[in-house]
Fold:
Amino acid sequence: MIFRRLLLLLTLLPLLSAAQTDKLWLDFKTLEEPFVFSFSSKNATFEALKKELYWDIPNFYTAKKPEKASFLVVDNSQNSAISGDGFAINADEKNVKIEAKTSAGALYGVYEYLRLYSCGQKVIKDYVSNPAYQIRILNHWDNPDGSVERGYAGKSIWFDGEKVKFREDIETYARANASIGINATVIDNVNADPKILSTEMLQGVKTIAEKLRPYNIKVYLAVNFSSPAALGGLKTSDPLDKDVIDWWTKKCKEIYTLIPDFGGFLVKANSEGLPGPMDFGRTHADGANMLAKALKPYGGIVMWRAFVYNPQGGDRAKQAYDEFMPLDGKFDDNVIIQIKNGPIDFQPREPFSPLFGAMKNTQIMAELQITQEYLGYSDHLCFLSTMWKEFLDYPTFHNGKTVKETTLNQKLTAFSAVANTGTMKNWCGYVMAQSNWYAFGRLAWNPDLTSQQIANEWINLTLTTDKEAVKKIENIMLRSREAVVDYMTPLGLHHLMGWSDHWGPEPWCDIPGAREDWMPRYYHKAAADGLGFDRSSKGSNAVEQYQEPLKSMYDNPKLCPKEFVLWFHHLPWDYTFDNGNTLWDELLYHYTKGVKEVEDFQKIWAGLKGTVKEPVFNEVTEKLKVQLDEAQWWRDGCVQYFQTFSKMDIPFKPKYTLEECKAKLRTKAYVERQKD
Ligand code: GCW
Structure:
């Protein structure tokens, strides 16, 4: 008998543990106390939070009278420290009280309690937590045909075959988001297909909204600005045209009839070939406000993207500012301008977009990228919390405020990021990539958390509670983003990656006839006289878009932070830094250091055998091999290519020749990497 059980267990074990990371960070520790529960409300959100507790507590039962309860969850608290969907927790070994003013708050409180408990904290006194940003939103770049733009975890979790068809276990997605406070999601790509607004599609979107509603997650749609013409058959999509206004008004009515709590629209307009108001001689404000008015009666909002640039517009880093600053103050109060963290495009490191320090009378929000388009796909361990904290805490010097303070100091506040989910069982294509989804949610709720705290929680919830192991993994995670910057784009270099797929190094890329501002050479400007983009007052003068003293600081290579020096300056190869190193020495130092970091991560990880589940241990071991190889490839490709201009020595033996680096880029197809 025992033998048979053992045998069964042995056959099940790989399955059980393989499933481990499919649960994301939701594998909470079982509550052991014999709690008696009481809940103040009986709505769908309370059912969801009850279900969450049922999973985690054996012998769960509800008290008839709240006074008898030892685990109390209420959504009618009078506690004045609680605001919005915030909550308060008081708990010891025998009694737990979670108070909120809304049922969503109660749900968040339950998750927070489960998190704290799972991380080993059982006694919690007067712990109050209120959300920082009002809208904490994921942007999915999922297309109706089931593909995902810049997705590295399989196909779409929402669509297939031009229809809404969501993952069967979509509830896990809802729970995962609710557990970290994410309360909104844009389910389709900003490169929006007009058909997303067709009646048939909207019926499908309604079914998604129903699945997410109990978890307090609102659905939003990215819409194509020319929908009135492309879908509605009108002659124009001019935002000032009466029929166009009428079309959007009716469309909004249709949407809200199906989805009464629909969030609103996200719009990419007049950018990368997408239509927009400027096609009709109108402005971004005309376009955004027209949509805002159609949504207004229902409480919907417009998130209008500032990601705009064109080959004729001069320095790409300046264009969003140039286009949007003249419109400051011209947007309706239910419009918020969604700005990527950096002025170019989710590069491993960019200075913050100057719009964050410049727009004074317009509501603005940040867009981050969780999916690792430019950071090694779902193959490189790169914990992005440190990058996002660097961005949030940067002083813009606009009223002395940081990016975080500027974006929180307005009536409507929001924080968004491009999701990294897909149909792969583990959702993100790599267990370590899950940590970035987690970190985004935690920071949207509380941007004051440290990256170390976030890593610590996530590791405890997902990988291991072994204290020594937690410390070591934390250490790897906290160093990982800088390592990626070092082996890809150190010292402010940017946009050196492979053409179109954005995978691997391709600083040499030259595609005849292609847009100049998509070519790496436009950005690095490597030549016999040096390296880097001159954005100083002697060059494109992008520095001018920053407030003082940043402007003067960035303008002077001696004062400019080293990590941005080649972003703002074109420096000679023998330029000498304060530490005595030439530019060439520094480049080699950083590229080499990035690779060494990954080697070190491998060593640390190897020592963790036995402390994390075997499949996770193996997964990370294998991925780190890929990461090391690609780090060496980046180092060798970039350094040897730059050497063709600098003519200076490379004091180590590269793993790959320059020719091999070029050939490697074409060996693995993007499509192949998307396999489920
Ligand atoms: O970085 C670029 C990406 C595009 C993306 C675009 C955007 C959705 O390469 O794939 O399109 O940014 O953010 O609009």
